[in-house]
Amino acid sequence: MATVPFTMDHAVYAYAPSETGNRSPRKLHRIRELRKQQGVSLRTASRKLGMPASQVREEEKPDTDLLVSQLSQWADILDVPIADLLEEPQNNLSSPIRERAKLVRIMKTVKAISERTQEANIGILAEVLTDQLVDLMPELADINAWNNVGQRRSLNDLGQIAERRISCDSIVGAMRD
Which SUPFAM superfamilies does this one have (predicted)? Predict the structure, then answer.
C-alpha cells in the first residue's frame, strides 16, 4: 500500500505534494499570478494571512492543493472571487469576452433557426429570441447565421494545404515510419 508524504505547517495546513512522475504537475489555481497582477507583495500577503512568507510561497505554488477556507482567505486578500483563483490559465479570454462569445454562438444558432424554419410559430420564437439577445447586447444585431456546410471560399482563395510547404525529406521519413 502506497502512502502519500505530507508536511504539516503550524499544525493547521496539510500539503500533499503531487506525485506525477515525469508529467508536469496539474495546475489547481492561479494565486501567484493574481497576487502579482493585483500588486500585493509577498510580505503583505504574509502579514494579512498571518503566516510566514515560506508558507505563503508554498500555498502559491499552482499545484498545491488548498482547502476552500484557504482559497477564501486568498480571495479576500486579493479582492477577487474564488472562481477567479481556480480559473485555468488555458483559457486566456477574460470572463466578459467568454460571455460575449457565448452570446454570439447563441445568436448564430437563433439566426440559423430563423432562416431555415418552415413553420410560422418557430419563426416567431426565433424573432423573439433575436430581439431579446439584441436587448442584452446591441452589437449582436449584425451577426449572421451559421454556414450550412462550412466556410465558403472564393475561387481565388487557397486552402491551407496549398500555403504550407512540405519537404521531400519529411515525406520520405513519414513513409519509412
Answer: lambda repressor-like DNA-binding domains
Long-range contacts of 1-4 (CB under 8 A, 24+ apart): none
CA Rg, the chain, in Å?
26
C-alpha cell belonging to residue 105: 454562438
Cell triple for residue 118?
418552415
What domains can you pick out in the chain, each with its CATH number? 7-86 (1.10.260.40), 99-168 (no CATH)
Which of 91-122 are b and which e, b meaning 16 or more Cβ less than 10 Å from the residue's Cβ?
eeeeeeeeeeeebeeebbebbbbbeeeeeeee
- For residue 172, the Cα-to-chain-centroid distance in whole angstroms is 39
Residue entry with cell 467568454: 98
What pLDDT sits at residue 135?
A: 93
Residue 60: CB atoms within 10 Å: 20
Q: Identify the three-state secondary structure at position 13.
A: strand
Is the dihedral angle over the CA atoms 169, 173, 174, 175 positive or is it negative? positive
Mean pLDDT along residues 49-64? 93
pTM reported for the whole predicted model? 0.41
pLDDT in tens, 111-142: 999 988 899 999 999 999 999 999 998 988 88
